[in-house]
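Issue: copy button drops trailing tokens. Both records pasted manually instead:
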Amino acid sequence: MANTSWLQKLKNLIGTPAASLSADIAAIPTTAQRGTDSAMLAANGALEATLTAIKGATWSDETLESIVTKIEALSTAGTYLEQIPDTDISLAAIDATLTADPPSADAANKVVDIDVSSGKTYVLRSLLINITSLGAASKLTFKLWTMLGTAVTQVDSVDVSATGIQNLFDLFGVQEVFGDGIWVTVQSDTGSDAALVGTYKYAQAST
């Protein structure tokens, strides 16, 4: 009754219906609720502090999308972006016939395959191969191709007559190869059962 009398007095003073005023009072957060809200505010503050530290002092309105765009823009003319990971090679049926020059060489004969792409130029950084079997062949012939002007051109050729590991320098006497397209093919002198495995790595830049 005392509470009702108190509400009635408030009603008389401010003209608010007692039932409505009672509901408003009930909506006031309890001490426990206020404690929970304070913990949430503290957690939010800690999260904001972490994000601020990650963003750094010069952050404005960058998004992940804009960051990716800016990274891609770093590939300006003459700036090479490295290929990661390497490209693996596995040929199990190397034959004696190259039915077409790169980039349309047979899959059985492709060792390195870096095709022409508008606005791009490349450098072959490394090539490692392991000739695991000569099969019926007595040797394998490796050919290096690149773009001279607008034509795909064979620029070097070497015969290898033993199994084992060869690198780019072993084969062609160069540390790297530059070009708007770069290919290495392999052929046996007979049969179609020679095999090799390997890996190569290249970088690309915008022209």
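Record 2 (pasted manually too):
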Amino acid sequence: MEAFEKNEAPATVDFTEDAVKEYLDMCIVKWRGCPPSEMRSHYVDAFQSVRVSVFGELLPVEEN
């Protein structure tokens, strides 16, 4: 998806397993990269909650 390549959330997402997972993962990674704030943690938690509900797993934190 072109929007994912630009690290932007697309206006719509194809309703396929791969597209939804890619969208959620991109949002989680994007919010994790923001400066620490209360909003950041709420958004990461919300996207992770959806990911667990739909796919049964959290997106792990990448270790450097």
